[in-house]
Each structure stands twice: as structure tokens, then as C-alpha cells.
Amino acid sequence: MAMVGGIDIGDELVDDGTNFIGIVPTFITPNYLTMFRFYEKLELSGEKGVYRFRCLFKDTTAIPETTLGRMLSVWDCLYIHKQDMADYDRYLKDNLHIILANEGIELDKRVMLFTEICFEVIQGVMGDNFGLPKFGVETYNKLKYLMSEAIGGVSDINFLNGIATLIGHDYGTYTHSIKVGWLMAIFVNANPDLFGVSGKSELEKLVVEVAVMGFLHDIGKAKIPRHIINKKGRLSNLEYVAIQAHTVYSVGLLFELNLPKHVMEGILYHHENEDGSGYPCGLKGEKIPLFAKLCHIADVFDALALTPELPYKTSKTPYQSLVIMAGKNPNLDALQQMEKEVAESGDTPAVDGADHGENPDIKRLEHELRMTREAVKRVEVRMRLRDKGMAHCFDAELLKRFVMTLNRSKSFEFSTFL
Ligand SMILES: [Fe+2]
Ligand SMILES: [Fe+2]
């Protein structure tokens, strides 16, 4: 055979693995087997870190498709040469609807595939390292196409079982956005009566729209410097305002696309609170559009269960997250006062004892340390206050429906909550 990388030893290639990429065998439909060269990875006796990659399925013409399908399920992982990866990617995207609907493939693997493909598109939109976002009609159409391809599988209630394994494990902006879009799509699909849609095609159109809304709800963060987005301590007044501006930035970035009004409103108002204490406009109750209310619920549900990154953050189960979201906060005044203070306190306290003749570098470091401790303490207090209840942020009826919808999946057990 022709040599495509590594060392050619007839039917096999010897390689340290850098030229090969692992793929999920069951993603391949048998009639596509001959389109790519698939390899099996084998140990090379006596050599560490070097493997034999044996080419499989070189001639499949005499084998019935059903047998081929069964053969594929024998391997946990097969390999493709880097050179073929672009073709393989295209194959996955073109056949997404078939793969996602295939119940013979483990749910986790299908969920992962969909997440990875959406991740790639959203990452492309937001740019590497939060560089300049580049969003155009083409990308929007790509997302819409992906979602409409995936709609049969992704909006199904069973897919919640797959998403349950993702929730709380990754809070990268991209995966967060995918999960929010996904939760919204499942919710709309399961509660068409709330949205006044009639007929399957109208519902499908709406499900695709809300999924894309979720995917893009935080796109405006791409315009905010990364060091502010990732800052763990106390935010200055300007930083606080800058972060809040992401909702307005999102709408600005999407403006030329002529998206439906409810999609734009959903994105713009996804941080409005039911009692009027949210942003950007401080809208209250009925003034907040339904899609914005839904986006807010899905957004916080995913964000609350985030993996701890700081000592004061404790990981929450989906159940605990919902308890917080539905709980009445007994210290609402104190919480709101604190929120106000954070927004208003851009200053740092004056450095004490400038004339003590000590090394200025040491004094500066001590000061920074004190400031960091102070900031962490304040974030901790705010978070503890917030965790006593967030019912003032959400539409109670909608939240209840949200819980009921999640409860229909066997991965979430909220019946005692309801
Ligand atoms: Fe947001
Ligand atoms: Fe968000």
C-alpha cells in the first residue's frame, strides 16, 4: 500500500501515534467504509511509545452491510490518518442527523459528537483567545443547519440523559452556550403550548431558533477583555459594567443578520430578573420576554452547578441548583446592597504606612495580598447570600415547568422537589 505517514511495513504503518486520530467506529455507516482508510492500533513488541497501525476493511465488496455494521461494533476505537481527517469531518457533518438518531450508538458518544461539532462552530465565531469575533450570515446559517440536522435527536427528552453528564463539568463559555441552547430546545419541544405554535414544522422552526439563541446568548463576551471575564476577585466599577455590557454587545454583533425579534430580545434580556434587579434595562415581570426568561433559567441552571475553581465555591448537584433557584432569599436587602456596592466600589483602600522605611516591593506585595484576600472574602459573602435563594430572579411558573420537563428524563430525579 502507499505510504501515508509513519513507516510503511506492508499492510501496516509503524508510528508513535502522532499521525493518527482515534474515532468512534459506530459513527461510520457501513456503506462509507471504503471512503476512508481505517486502522487498528496494535502494540509493537519490545518498543515503548511506538505502535503498529493495521489497515482494515480494504475490500468490503463481498461482505453484507449488516455484517459490516456488526464488525464495526467490535472495536472501541479505530484510527484514521491525519491526512483523511478533513474528509472524515465532512462525513460527520453531512451525516449528523443519521448518526444522532442511531440508537445503536451509545448516547454519551452522540452527545459528545454534537457538542464537539457545535463547539467548533461557536469557537470559530468567538475567535481564538477571545480575539475579534467574526460573525456573519454564513456562520449563523451553519449553526442553523447543524441544529436542523440534529433536531430529531437533540430535542428529544432522552437526550437530557446525555446532557446530564455534561452539566456541571465544564464551564467554558462555548460548552456552556451549547448546553444552554440544548436545554432551551428540549424545553420548547416539550412545551409547545406555552409558545402558541401549531403544527410540527412550526415547532421545529422554533426549536432551531431557540437552540441558536442559546448558542449565541453570550457571544458579546467576545468583545470583553479576557482578564476581566476570568477575574475571580472583586470587580471594579468599570469591569462590572463592562461584563454586563455583553448582552448589548451580543445584540450589536448579530444586528445585521435580521434575526427574528424574539431571538434578539431573548439574548438582550437574558440577565433581567423578575423583580427588576437585573440588567441591562431592569425590566420587571411581564415586561421580560418569554424567551429571555427561559434563557435566564437555563443559563443559571447550568452555571450554578459549575465545578469549583476557587476554595469558597462548592460544587452543586442539579437538584441543589434548583433548590437555590426556587428558594426565597431571606436576606434579599443585604444581597442587593452588596450587589450595589460591588458595582460602585472601583477604588482600592489606601496603602498603609508608606514611610516605615520598608522595602517598597515587599509593601506592594503585602498590599496586593491583602487586596486579594479582601476580594475573595467579599465574593464569598456575596455567593453565600445568593445561594440562600434566587426566586426573585425567575418566573416561578416557568421555572416549575422547567423542573417538570427535566424530571421527565431518567437522569434527573426532581419529583420530591415538585
Ligand atoms: Fe450572559
Ligand atoms: Fe450564559
- Residue share in β-strands: 5-15%
* Low-confidence residue ranges: 128-133, 167-171, 306-312, 347-354
What's the domain count? 2
Q: In CATH terms, what is the fold-level topology of the largest domain?
A: Hypothetical protein af1432
Q: What's the overall average pLDDT, rounded?
A: 77
Helix content: 40-55%
Number of helical segments with 4 or more residues:
17
Strand order of the largest sheet: 1-2-5-4-6-3
CATH level-4 homologous superfamily of the largest domain: Hypothetical protein af1432
Largest sheet properties: 6 strands, antiparallel
User: What is the straight-line distance between the termini?
Assistant: 63 Å
Q: N-to-C SSE series?
A: EEEEEHEHHHHHHHHHHHHHHHH
Describe what you observe in this structure:
This protein has helices at 65-72, 85-94, 96-101, 107-126, 137-154, 159-166, 173-190, 200-216, 226-229, 237-244, 246-254, 261-268, 290-304, 318-326, 332-344, 360-386, 396-407, and strands at 7-9, 12-15, 20-23, 38-43, 51-56, 78-81. By secondary structure, the chain is α+β, with helices and mostly antiparallel strands. It folds into two domains: 1-91, no CATH class; 95-328 and 389-407, Orthogonal Bundle (Hypothetical protein af1432). The chain has a six-stranded antiparallel beta sheet, with no helix packed on it. Strand 4 (38-43) and strand 5 (51-56) form a beta hairpin. Helix 5 crosses helix 8 (200-216) and helix 7 packs antiparallel against helix 8 (200-216). It is globular and about 75 Å long. It starts with 6 loop residues before the first strand and ends in an 11-residue tail after the last helix. One fe (ii) ion binds next to helix 7.
